[in-house]
């Protein structure tokens, strides 16, 4: 059986003192260090999550800006293309007007020359007819 003598109480006191010392020297600092480590890991995880969220937001903003820039570039190219087509059509219309004006002035010049040629021919015909008549009459007489 167990004897309860002074040695038991001394060992019990030693054990209690050792537990108190061990608690203050080893267990509390270790628990404190583990709590700090757990808190640091949790903070790091939160920081990683917030960084991932920031990266996702920045990526979405970048993609939105890129899509907007592409849309603006397409719109700009379409506007420029339409302006070029309009300018081309304007140039073609101007060229048609100029060619029609040149053609009309050429036609008028040809009509004038034709009229002058007819007048000259009419005058020459009269002169030629008079000359032929004189020659014919001159031979006949």
TrEMBL record:
Statement: the UniProt record of this protein carries the keyword Ion transport: yes
Function description: Component of the F(0) channel, it forms part of the peripheral stalk, linking F(1) to F(0). The b'-subunit is a diverged and duplicated form of b found in plants and photosynthetic bacteria. F(1)F(0) ATP synthase produces ATP from ADP in the presence of a proton or sodium gradient. F-type ATPases consist of two structural domains, F(1) containing the extramembraneous catalytic core and F(0) containing the membrane proton channel, linked together by a central stalk and a peripheral stalk. During catalysis, ATP synthesis in the catalytic domain of F(1) is coupled via a rotary mechanism of the central stalk subunits to proton translocation.
PANTHER family to which the protein is assigned, alphabetical: ATP SYNTHASE SUBUNIT B', CHLOROPLASTIC
Organism: Desulfurispira natronophila
Similarity field: Belongs to the ATPase B chain family.
Protein name, per record: ATP synthase subunit b
Annotated membrane topology: Single-pass membrane protein
Listed GO CC annotations: endomembrane system; plasma membrane; proton-transporting ATP synthase complex
Pfam families referenced in this protein's UniProt entry, alphabetically: ATP-synt_B
InterPro entries: ATP_synth_b/b'su_bac/chlpt, ATP_synthase_B_chain
Keywords: ATP synthesis, Cell membrane, CF(0), Coiled coil, Hydrogen ion transport, Ion transport, Membrane, Transmembrane, Transmembrane helix, Transport
Compartment annotation: Cell membrane; Endomembrane system
Coiled coil segments of this chain: 48-127
Molecular functions per Gene Ontology: proton-transporting ATP synthase activity, rotational mechanism; proton-transporting ATPase activity, rotational mechanism
Assembly and interaction partners: F-type ATPases have 2 components, F(1) - the catalytic core - and F(0) - the membrane proton channel. F(1) has five subunits: alpha(3), beta(3), gamma(1), delta(1), epsilon(1). F(0) has three main subunits: a(1), b(2) and c(10-14). The alpha and beta chains form an alternating ring which encloses part of the gamma chain. F(1) is attached to F(0) by a central stalk formed by the gamma and epsilon chains, while a peripheral stalk is formed by the delta and b chains.
Top-rank taxon, per record: Bacteria
Record-annotated membrane-spanning stretches: 6-27
């Amino acid at each position: 059986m167990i004897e309860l003598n002074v040695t038991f109480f001394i060992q019990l006191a030693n054990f209690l003192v050792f537990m108190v010392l061990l608690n203050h020297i080893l267990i509390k600092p270790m628990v404190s260090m583990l709590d700090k480590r757990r808190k640091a890991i949790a903070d790091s995880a939160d920081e990683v999550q917030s960084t991932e969220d920031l990266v996702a937001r920045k990526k979405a903003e970048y993609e939105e800006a890129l899509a907007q820039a592409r849309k603006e570039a397409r719109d700009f190219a379409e506007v420029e293309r339409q302006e070029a087509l309009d300018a081309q059509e304007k140039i073609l219309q101007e060229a048609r007007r100029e060619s029609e004006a040149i053609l009309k002035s050429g036609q008028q010049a040809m009509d004038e020359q034709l009229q002058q040629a007819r007048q000259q021919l009419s005058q020459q015909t009269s002169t030629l007819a008079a000359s032929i008549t004189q020659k014919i009459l001159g031979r006949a007489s």
